[in-house]
Design brief:
Structural class of chain A: alpha+beta
Largest sheet of chain B: none
Strand content of chain A: 15-25%
Distance between the termini of chain B: 6 Å
Number of helices of chain A: 17
Number of helices of chain B: 12
Distance between the termini of chain A: 48 Å
Radius of gyration of chain B: 24 Å
Mean pLDDT of chain B: 91
Number of strands of chain B: 0
Structural class of chain B: mainly alpha
Oligomer: heterodimer
Largest sheet of chain A: 6 strands, mixed
Helix content of chain B: over 70%
Helix content of chain A: 25-40%
Chain lengths: 535, 306
């Protein structure tokens, strides 16, 4: 009898799977006979260990090999992963109900304990994860564990039973379901790690719970993943094989694409967007991302400590011209630290952004005169050597020179040297950029908050800080949004930095690649959601 | 000669120690560290990372720790490629570089010597001008121009060969990068061979041989070839080393997983162990090739004895 009910349940699951498939691949779309894709991943992943991963390429592959409590689908929405449902049971507690049919690639069942192990491992000082603090901030006791004051078992994550996971947060975190889509907070297979140690991520050893398994890994060349038969939703996975290339050079990437060996360019080389838009109108894609290009100003600098100088510098840069003529790759002008489309706060904008440029220049000149900064003064700008950054810097230099008479000395340096200078606050102005880790305004606010590691400027507004704290404690999303927006406006009115552009990802993707979306603002795609259209 | 070789090999050890020490100090003196990134890690995370890689120890301790590992044949763990040891990375990249670089050197020696000799024997003829034109082209046009042109023609337009990539020594992936390297190397070898053979053909002993009435074929093959090859042989060492150290252009253009890319990325990422490991490797190869070249001298030139 029990067996009968089991097979009935199986039938039901299969039937619902059939329906889900119809939802994944739109009606009328014919699938190609071979479901294989090649996607360039930009560079070699630093690891395939989810706890250690920090870069975009590593996270891209890990998203196929593992599955977290939730996931982000192609449209950028939070969808169920291993968790079927979740609920905030009190302001600082979330409970996730896991599906019972989730399996590891070796056939073992995925349980709440696997998540507990994964999260403890993330914050364990011995793991030395770069993301331990970034995501640990949302887990009760994580800070103390990281500092070695408490053992990893003290983490506020508990397996209530095999399929119920309870997460305690140090403050109310309404967007936790979004955060836990990151695989740093996902499950790992303890027995595999115990058995293979450092080699557990190698092909043949790696056991994951994602829709794909690791078939081949050739460092600096390619990683091949193949559809997993043990994945709970395998019937809705169309691709049988996906190859990730590790091509760093944008021109080589496009050549591989044009010769038919690559279906998905990582990112077009600078200055080529318009050309390829003309050449491949059906294959060009450009999605606005949750990311910001900005210039950090050293707020303690003898010249730049005067807010009037910082304001004048920001005012005269014509972002529209920069976006349309200089970078010319579809990026959007930015006037605040909060970018368009991010949840939790509204983008702020300076009043002068709507003024004609003449008026902005006149006002900026007045501000500089009041501050006592005479035309002919010199400022220094540090950036890492790259055609793209150089183009933007030359534009900024010419804006300041022609409109305010300020001379900009451009200092090009190696990436690591720039980072060191920024960390040491050993600069006057420096190139900077940020891409969101999760869809919430707080990820951007860390760039300008008082005691944040990501604040290169050294600015601090305690009043705004209090508003952010109050907002984060609030359970009312509307109130939180108002408070965070207010705080962002307050900080931006101090002119700590110069927001310039919101990132886009211009790339070529073959027209037969199904499941690509123009609304995926975090640029996260699971191979599970992709398919090859008949061509 | 056996004892000569042994002495040469033993003399490598102090060289290696000096190279490793200087390189170690230079790497650590470079601003920025392996864990500096766009997203700054918090102080406590940085401390945990440094502890994991022994960077929290005093420099001299780290250095001794590294030397000890090196003596045991362990090049350490990579900072950038967290899942791989430097030994594993080198073991994967070296065969790729050796196949393309080594193959290119052998081919370019054959072609270069042949073309250079023909040009020398038919000095100021059409063949000579053609060879010299090719030589000048190979010198003047940088590889990052020739490479993409080869890709455009053979991969994008004709679709005969892949535009890049690597698949377990499959010949289709080797042809274009090797052709590029051969083209560049032939330019050098051909010119050197031509000049050298012309010089030898004008020397007194050749004139004597001619006076004795020997046929040109015998003069060239038996008497002129050996001394004319000496400058070409001297080129092999530098060519072999540059096929690793300057391979980054070819490897970038053709997306190859070779050593050149590891060296450049290792330096940019402050991947201390990886860079040191590769420096050790290049030093060993350089010393090895220099020894081989010296031995080849002895075989070619009766005046040289060891």
């Amino acid at each position: 009898m029990k067996m009968l009910s089991n097979s009935l349940a199986l039938l039901l699951v299969m039937a619902s799977g059939g329906l889900a498939m119809a939802a994944n691949v739109p009606a009328g779309v014919k699938l190609h006979e071979t479901q294989e894709l090649v996607r360039n991943n930009g560079s070699e992943p630093e690891t395939l260990d989810p706890a250690i991963a920090s870069g975009v390429p590593a996270n891209n592959v890990i998203r196929d090999l593992f599955e977290g409590l939730t996931a982000i689908d192609s449209a950028g929405r939070v969808v169920p992963g291993v968790a079927e449902s979740w609920k905030q049971t009190d302001p600082q507690t979330w409970v996730f109900k896991l599906r019972k049919n989730a399996k590891w690639s070796n056939g073992d069942g995925v349980s709440a304990d696997d998540f507990v192990y994964g999260m403890r491992r993330l914050v364990d000082p011995a793991t030395a994860s770069k993301y331990a603090a970034t995501y640990g901030v949302f887990l009760h006791n994580a800070k103390d564990i990281l500092e070695g004051k408490k053992p990893p078992v003290a983490l506020g994550v508990k397996a209530v039973d095999a399929y119920t996971l309870e997460i305690k947060t140090p403050f109310p975190t309404g967007f936790l379901p979004d955060v836990v889509s990151n695989l740093q907070l996902g499950p790992v297979h303890k027995a595999t790690i115990d058995k293979h140690g450092k080699d557990w991520t190698k092909p043949g050893n790696l056991v994951g719970n994602g829709a794909f398994t690791l078939k081949d890994w050739q460092v600096n060349s390619k990683i091949v993943v193949a559809k997993s038969t043990n994945y709970w939703d395998a019937k809705n996975v169309q691709l049988s094989k996906l190859t990730y290339l590790a091509v760093e050079d944008g021109n080589a990437d496009v050549k591989l694409y044009e010769s038919g060996e690559n279906d998905w360019v990582y990112q077009l080389p600078p200055g080529t967007y318009e050309k390829y838009k003309q050449q491949y109108p059906k294959e060009i894609r450009n999605t606005t991302m949750l990311g910001l290009r900005y210039y950090s100003l050293q707020n303690a600098d003898p010249v730049l400590k005067d807010i009037r100088v910082r304001k004048a510098l920001s005012m005269v840069i014509d972002r529209d011209l920069l976006a349309q003529r200089v970078t010319a790759d579809g990026q959007v002008p930015a006037y605040g630290v909060i970018v368009n489309g991010v949840s939790g706060a509204n983008p702020t904008r300076y009043e002068w952004a709507g003024w004609p440029m003449d008026r902005r220049v006149a006002e900026a000149k007045k501000l500089l005169a009041d501050a006592g900064l005479a035309p002919g003064s010199k400022l220094k700008f540090a950036y890492n050597t790259s055609e793209y950054h150089k183009k933007m810097a030359i534009f900024a230099a010419s804006e300041w020179k022609t409109k305010l008479g300020i001379n900009l000395e451009l200092e090009a340096m190696e990436f690591k040297v720039l980072i060191k200078k920024r960390d040491d606050r050993d600069f006057q102005m420096a190139r900077n950029g940020w891409v969101a880790d999760y869809d919430d305004a707080t990820t951007f606010l860390t760039l300008v908050q008082c005691d944040s590691d990501q604040n290169s400027q050294g600015n601090c507004n305690r009043k705004a800080e209090a508003l952010i704290d109050e907002g984060n404690k609030s359970l009312d999303p509307a109130k939180r949004r108002t408070l965070l927006t207010q705080a962002a406006q307050m900080i931006m009115d101090d002119y700590p930095m110069i927001p310039l552009l919101q990132y886009t990802v211009p790339r070529l993707v073959k027209s037969y690649v199904g499941g690509y979306s123009s609304t995926n603002a975090l640029d996260r795609y699971r191979a599970k959601d992709l398919y090859v259209i008949k061509h | 000669m056996g004892s000569y070789c042994l002495r040469r090999i033993l003399a490598t050890l102090p060289t290696l120690l000096v190279v490793v020490t200087v390189c170690y100090l230079m790497l650590h003196a470079t601003p920025g560290g392996p864990f500096d990134d766009e997203r700054k890690v918090s102080a406590v995370v940085l401390a945990n990372l440094q502890a994991k890689y022994h960077l929290d120890q005093p420099m001299w301790k780290q250095y001794l720790y590294y030397l000890n590992n090196l003596l045991h044949g362990d090049l350490g763990a990579s900072f950038r490629y967290a899942d791989w040891s430097v030994n594993e990375l080198v073991a994967k990249a070296l065969p790729v570089s050796a196949a393309i670089g080594g193959g290119a050197i052998v081919l370019s020696l054959l072609i270069g010597v042949l073309l250079g000799s023909v040009a020398a024997l038919r000095q100021n003829s059409a063949v000579d001008y053609l060879v010299m034109l090719m030589g000048n082209l190979g010198h003047a046009v940088p590889s990052f121009v020739i490479g993409p042109v080869l890709i455009l023609v053979f991969a994008v337009w004709l679709r005969l060969l892949p535009a890049g990539g690597w698949d377990d020594f499959a010949p289709r992936y080797i042809v274009l990068p090797m052709a590029l390297l051969v083209f560049i190397n032939v330019a050098t070898i051909g010119r050197v061979m031509r000049g050298s053979l012309i010089e030898v053909l004008h020397s007194n002993f050749i004139r004597t041989a001619r006076a004795k009435g020997l046929p040109t074929r015998i003069i060239v093959l038996r008497h002129a070839m050996k001394p004319a090859l000496l400058p070409v042989v001297s080129l092999i060492g530098p060519l072999a080393i540059s096929s690793i150290t300057s391979a980054v252009v070819t490897e970038t253009v053709f997306s190859l997983p070779g050593l050149g890319k590891l060296i450049v990325n290792g330096a940019a990422n402050r991947d201390y162990t990886l860079v040191l490991g590769l420096v050790v490797l290049v030093t060993v190869i350089a010393v090895g090739f220099n020894l081989l070249v010296d031995l080849a001298y002895a075989a070619l030139d009766p005046k040289i004895r060891y």
